Amino acid sequence: MFAFIHSSDLHLGKRFGSFSGDLPGRLREARHDVIGRLADHARAQGVATVLLAGDTFDTETPAPEVRRQALTAMAQHAGIRWVILPGNHDSLQASQLWATVRSEAPENVILALEPHVIELAADVMLLPAPCTTRRAGRDLTDWMNGAATPEGALRLGLAHGAIQGFSEEAVAADIIAPDRAMHAGLAYLALGDWHGAIEVNARTRYSGTPEPDRFKHDQPGEALLVRIAGTAALPEVTALPTARFSWRTLPLHLHDGDDPAEALARLLPEMHSRRQTLARVIATGRSRLPARTALAGAIAHSAPDFAFLELDDTGLATECDVTDLDQIDRAGSLREAAEALLLEAGNEALSAGDREIARAALARLYSYAQAVAS
Amino acid sequence: MKILALRLFNVRRFAGRGVAIEGIADGVNVLSAPNEFGKSTSFEALHALFFQPHGSVGGEVKKLRPYSGGNPLIEADIALGTGQFRIAKQYLGGRFAKVTDLQTGRLVAQADEAENFIAGLVTGGTSGPAGLLWVRQGLTGLEKRGKTEEEGERELRRSLLESVQGEVEAVTGGRRMAAILAATQEALSELVTATGRPKAGGRYHAAIEDRDRLAGQEQRLAGEVATLQQQLEQRAKAARRLAELDSPGERQERRKAVEAAQAAFDAAKAQTDRLTAAEAELKLARDRRDAAERDFQMFRSALDRAADLRGKLQAAEERRRNAIDSRREADEAIGRAIAETEAAEAGEQIARNLLSRLDAALRAREASARLAEVKDQLAQAEAARLSLEQGEAQLALLKVSPRAIDELQALELEIAKLRAVKEAALASVIVRYEPAAAVRISMNGEALPEAEERTYDGQTLLSVPGIGTLTLRSNHPDTGDDRLHKALEKRKALLADLKAEDLAAARARQVQAQRLEAELGELRGRLSQLAPQGLPKLREDVAARAAAAVDGPDLKEDPDQVRAVFASSQERLKHARLSQRETEPRRARANDAFVEAETALAALRAEQTHVTSILGPENARSLREQDLRTGLDERMRILADAEAHAARLRATILDLDNAEASLRRARSAEDAATLEANQLREAIAGLNAEIRTRSDEAVEEKWRETGEALAAASARLSAFEKEVAVLQRLQAALETARSDARDLYLKPVLGELTPLLGLLFDDVSISFDDKSLLPQVIRRNGLDEDIERLSGGMREQLSILTRLAFARMLARDGRPAPVILDDALVYSDDDRIEKMFDALHRQSKDQQIIVFSCRQRAFQRLGGNVLRMSDWQP
Questions:
Q1: Do B691 and B229 contact (CB within 8 A), yes or no?
Q2: What string of DSSP letters covers B563-597?
Q3: Contact criterion met (CB < 8 Å) for B708 and A59
Q4: Which residue of A has its CA nearest to B121?
Q5: Residue A266, Cα to own-chain centre: how many angstroms?
Q6: Rounded Cα gap, residues A225 and A212, in angstroms
Q7: What residues of A are in contact with residue B236 (Cβ under 8 Å)?
C-alpha cells in the first residue's frame, strides 16, 4: 500500500490584475495557503508524500518572496515530502528559478527536474516528465515506456500537459498519450495543467488546481488522495477540499414578469460564504425595463457581500410595453423620445451595437424618469 | 376639465384653519384680494394638489406646511366630461390621496391610483399634452428657471420666440424633460466635453489614460519578459556549452591531443635534424668521391694525352721542317723572278730609247714633206685667186637685171596683144580650092593655102595664076594706136639699156652671166679649200714651217722591227713582273706555315710539360695510378653508405610541417576552449545578474498582472464608451423629441396666438415666419421695432396670450383646461390690462379662466364671476 496526495497548478504568485482593491492580495494569499492546507490533509490522512504535477509557480520568474515563502512553508511540514515538477508556466527553461530553488530547497522537497527514476520509497518509483520549455512540442512522457525499475516496483508517473482538448492553453503539438499509464506500466499517472479535476481513466487523473483562479471550470478546488494497494490494484482516489475561494458562474434565466431580485436571491450562495466567493451572474432571457433596472440594482446591492460579483446581462433581451413607457411619461416629448428609442432598440436593420445603445439609452431614460418623478 | 371649488386646510398661513373658494364657474373667475390675504396660498395649494404626489416630502410640499406645523389638506372639486369628482390630498402626516365621485360619493381611486388619475388630468392622456395652464406672478413659466428669471430686466429682454417656446415647453411636460435632459447632460458632461471629446480629469478620460498607461506598461513588461526569456535561453545554451567544455573528459582529451601533437612534433623535429646531418655527410662524401674521380680521371686523361702528345709532337716537328724547306724554296723562286724582272726592265729600256730616236727621225721627215705640200697649196691658192678676180670682172660686164628682162618680156606680150587686137580689125581672105584646081592663088607673093584665113591692111594684091591679079582694098581708117607705139618705144628704150638687140639676145646674155657666176662659185670653193683661213694665214704657215724645218738624224733601222723589239721587251717585262707577284704570296704562305708549325709545336710542348707535371716521373706513374684508383673506390663506397643512410632516414621521415600544424591546431583548440569557457563564464555572469534582477523583480508576474489589469481597464473603457454613446443617444433622442414637440405644438399655438395679438395690440403687428417660427417683424405705430427687445409688460402679456392660445387649442381638441393666473399682469399698464380683459372674456366663451390678483381696483373692471374666500373646516 502506497498513498500520496496528487495536486497541481498552485500558480503561486499569480497576481489577478483584473481585480481591484485588496482582492488580488487575498487571492494570492489563498494560493500560498494551499501549501498548508495540503500539508494538513496529508497529516490527517497519514500520507507522507505530496506530488505537485507542475505549475507550482505562476511564472518562470516568481518574486523572491513567493518562492522563499513557498519553500519555507513546505519546510515547515518536515514530515511531508514535496515533489515539485516543472510545468509549462515554470518550465526548466526558467533555469534561474530552478537553480535558485535547488539551492534553497529544504530537505523534504524533491525537485523532479530530470526524466530519471526517483525512488520515493522501497519499491515505489516515480517517473517524472518535467516540462523542458513552455511548449516542448513532443510527448515528454515517452521515456516512461522504456524506463527500467526494479522488478515488482510500483511505477508512478508525474507529468504536466494536455491530453487532447483538455489543455489550458490549447496547444496541439505536445499531447500526452492518454493511454500512457497502460503502455508504461504505471500504477498511476498524476497529471497537471487542467485546472478542473478530471479522471482520464482509472490510472490517469488531473487533480485540478487546489485553489481555482478563474470562472472557467466552476469546480471547487480540491486535491486527490491516492491510495494504491499494489501494482495490479486500481488506485483508490478521494477528493479533498482545498479551496479558500469559490469561483462561480451563475446562470440567471429570466422570463417576462419574473422578479429579478427574487430570482437572484435564490441563485446567490449563502450569505456567510459570499465573502469567499467570486461570482459572475450571466443573465439571459427577457425582462422589462423595471425588472432590468431592478436586477442591476439588486446586483449593486449584493456586490459588497461578495469578494467579487458582476452581472453579464448581454444575453438579456429587453421587453418593453406601453406601461413601461407610461412610467416615463404618458405623453409629450419624453414619451416621443422613449418610443423612438424603443423602436430603434427593436430595429433589426440596425447593428446589434446600435440597438444595444438604444436599449441602454431607453433604460437610462427610464431610470432618470423615475429619479425626477414629480 | 373645469374646477368647481378649492378647499384647503393647514396650508401655510392657514394654520389650524381652512378656507374654501366655492362656486367657481365657467368663463372668467376673479379672486381679487389684497396681498397677504391668502390668495397666493390658494394658488400654490391648487398647484400642489395637481403636481405634488401625496407621498412627496420635497421642498414644495414642505413649503405648504404652516410654521406651527400640521398636515396640509387640499381638495378640489372638478368637472370632467365623465362627471364631477373631488380630489383630495393630505401631505406629510397622515398623507393620502383620493378621488371621489361627487354624485355617488363613491371612492374612485386612492393613493397611487389617485395620483394616476390626477396625472391623467394634468397631462391629458396619451394623445398629447394637456393640463392646467398656469401663469405666476412675474413669471412666464412654471419651469424652474427662478434664479435667472428673477434677474429681471435682462431676462425680460429675451426674445419673443423664446418666450413663446418656453410657454409651449411649460405646457408640454417640459419640466421633467428639462430635468432628465439636464441629468443626461450632467452625466455626459462628467465624461466628455461639449464637442464629445473625453473630458480632461473626467472618469472617461481617466479610464483612457489608465488603459493607455497599462498598455504601455504591458508592452514594456512584455518586452522585458521576452528579454528575460531570451536571456534564460542564452544562459541555458551558454551553460550547456560550458558544461561540455568543462567536462573532465573533454578537457583531458584536449590536453592529450596537445601532448600527442607535441610528442609527434618533437620526434619529427629530431628526425629532421638527423636527416639534415646525414644529408650533409652525403654531400661531403659525394664531393670527395667527385674529387677523387676527378683526380683519377685527370690522371688517366693525362696519360692518354701524353701518348697523344708524343705523336703530335713528332708530326709538328715534321711540319716545321717542311715549312722551313718550303720557305727556302720560295725565297729562291722570288730571287729568280726578281732577276728576270730586272733583266726585262733593262731590255725594255734599250728598246724604248731606240724607238724614240726612230720616231724623231720620222717626224722630221714628215715636216719637210708637209712644207712642200703647203708651198704647193699656196701657189694653187694664189692662182685660183687670180682666176676669180678675172671672172668677176667678166661677170660685171655680162650681168643683166632679171627685172629688166621680165619687164621686157611683159612688154613684148603687151605688144603682141596690141597687135593681135589691131589685126582682128583687119579684113581677111579665105580660099577654098576645088579639088581639081591645080593653081594656087598667092597673096603678095605668097601662096594661099586651102581654107586659111589671111588678113590684110589697106590693100593687098592677090595673084591668080592663069588669071591675073586681084587687088583687095580695105578702106579701114587707121585708128592711130598710141598704146602700141608707146610699147614699141618703151621696148626700144629697154633694149638700149640692155645693150641687146632683142629679147632673145638679152636672155642669152643672162644665161652666159649665170654660167660665169657658177664658175666663180666653184673657184671660190677651191680657194677656201686651199686656204681655209685665208691666204695670209696660209702664207704665215708656209713661212713658219720653212723656218722650223731642220734635218733629222738619218736612221737605218727598220722602224717596224724596232717596234717589234720594243713590244716583245715590254711583254717580257710584264711577264717577269707577273711571275714575281705570283712568287711573293708563296713566300708569305711559307712564312705563315712556318709560324703555325712553330706555334703548334710550342703549344704541344707546353702541354707536354703540363701533362708531365701531372704524371710525375715516368717510372712512378703506374704506382700512382694504382693509388688513385684505390682512393676512388674507397670514396665511392663511403658515398654509397652515406646515400643508403640518408635514404633510410628520408624514407622514415615525419612531416614536420604537418606535425607543427597539428600541434598548433591542438593548442589553439585548447586555447579556444579555454577562451570560450572564460567568455561563457563572463556571459553567464552578466546574464545571471540581469536574470536575477528581472527574476527578483518578478517581471513576468507583473506582466501578467498588467495584462489582466489592461483587459479590465479596456473593459472599463468600453463600458465608458458605451455609457457615452448611450448618453449621447439619449440626449439626441430627447432633444429631437423636444424640437419635434416644439414644431408640433408651437405652430398651432402661434396660429391661435395671432388673432389674440391683434386683439391686444391694435397698434402693433407681429408676423412670424412659417418655417422657422421666428417672429419676423414687430410694427408699432407704423414703425419697425427691434425684435430682440420686448418690454416686461409686453412679455407678460404675451405669456398670458400664449396660454390662452394653448388652452384654445386644447379646447378645440375637445380637452378643455382651465387657465390660472396669479397676479400675472404686474408690468402692464391699465390700458393694456383692459385690453387683456377683453381678450380674456373673448376667450372665456369656451374656457375656464381663474384669475388671482391683488390689484383690486384694476381688476374690478375685469368683471366676470367674482370669487370669495370663506372659512372651511374639513
A1: no
A2: HHHHHHHHHHHHHHHHHHHHHHHHHHHHHHHHHHH
A3: no
A4: A330
A5: 24
A6: 18
A7: 93, 95
Task: Look at chain A and count its residues.
Answer: 374
Size of interface A-B (CB pairs under 8 A): 170
Determine how many CB atoms are found less than 10 A away from the CB of residue A88: 24
B726 touches chain A (CB under 8 A): yes
Partner-chain contact B740 A95, CB within 8 Å: no
- Evaluate if residue B308 carries a pLDDT over 50: yes
Instruction: Give residue B831's identity as a one-letter amino acid code.
Output: D
Q: How far apart are CA B396 and CA B619, in angstroms?
A: 136
C-alpha cell at B732: 439626441
Question: Long-range CB contacts (< 8 A, 24+ apart) of B687-691?
Answer: B687/B231, B687/B234, B687/B235, B687/B238, B688/A96, B688/B235, B690/B231, B691/A61, B691/A96, B691/B228, B691/B231, B691/B232, B691/B235
Average pLDDT, chain B: 79
Torsions phi, psi for B106 (to 5 deg): -75, 140
Give residue-wise pLDDT tens across range B462-484.
888 888 888 888 776 656 567 78
Half-sphere exposure of B769 (CA within 13 A, CB side): 9
What is the rounded distance in angstroms from the CA atom of residue B617 to the CA atom of residue B728?
Answer: 147
A99-104 contacts at long range (C-beta below 8 A, 24 or more positions apart): A100/A67, A100/B695, A101/A67, A101/A71, A104/A67, A104/A68, A104/A71
Distance between CA A61 and CA A79 in Å, rounded? 28
In A, minimum Cα distance to B694 occurs at A61
Grid cell locating A19: 481585480
Per-10-residue mean pLDDT of chain A, 374 residues long, equals 91 85 89 91 90 89 87 89 90 83 89 89 89 82 86 89 64 73 88 88 90 84 90 88 89 80 86 89 82 85 89 78 70 77 84 85 83 64
The residue type of B605 is: R
* Binary contact (B177, A360; C-beta < 8 A): no
How many of the other CB atoms lie within 10 Å of CB of B829? 11
Alpha-carbon B527 to chain mean position: 112
Q: What SS3 state is found at B465?
A: coil
Q: Which of B54, B730, B735, B813 to mutate to test the interface with A (most CBs of A within 10 A)?
A: B730
CA angle (B719, B721, B723) in 5-degree steps: 65
Measure CB to CB from residue A364 to each of B127, B688, B730 and give the nearest one: B730
Q: Is B166 an 8 Å CB contact of chain A?
A: no
How far, in Å, CA of A78 to CA of B65, rounded? Answer: 78
Mutate to test the interface with B, among A10, A19, A27, A61 (most CBs of B within 10 A): A61
- For each of the domains in chain A, give its residue range(s) and CATH number, in order of start: 2-241 (3.60.21.10), 246-373 (no CATH)
Q: In what order do the strands lie in the sheet containing B819-822?
A: B133-135, B819-822, B849-853, B28-32, B865-866
Query: Is the minimum CB–CB distance between B864 and chain A shorter than 8 Å?
Result: no
The three cell numbers locating residue A300: 449593486
* Chain A partners within 8 Å of B695 (Cβ): 61-62, 64, 96-97, 100
Could you give the percent of chain B with pLDDT greater than 90?
0
Q: What does DSSP say about strands B427-429 and B454-456: parallel, antiparallel, or unpaired?
A: antiparallel
Choose the mutation target among B701, B714, B722, B728 for the interface with A, i.e. most A CBs under 10 Å. B701
A351 contacts: CB under 8 Å, gap ≥ 6? none
Nearest CA in chain A to B169: A333
Of the candidates B21, B88, B95, B36, the one whose C-alpha atom is nearest the C-alpha of residue B65 is: B95
Would you call B740 an interface residue with chain A, using a CB distance cutoff of 8 Å? Answer: yes
B740 to chain A: nearest residue by CA?
A: A333
- Cβ–Cβ of B176/A58 closer than 8 Å? no
Whether residue A61 and residue B698 make contact (CB cut-off 8 A), yes or no, is: yes
Q: Between B696, B711, B729, which is nearest A64 by CB?
A: B696
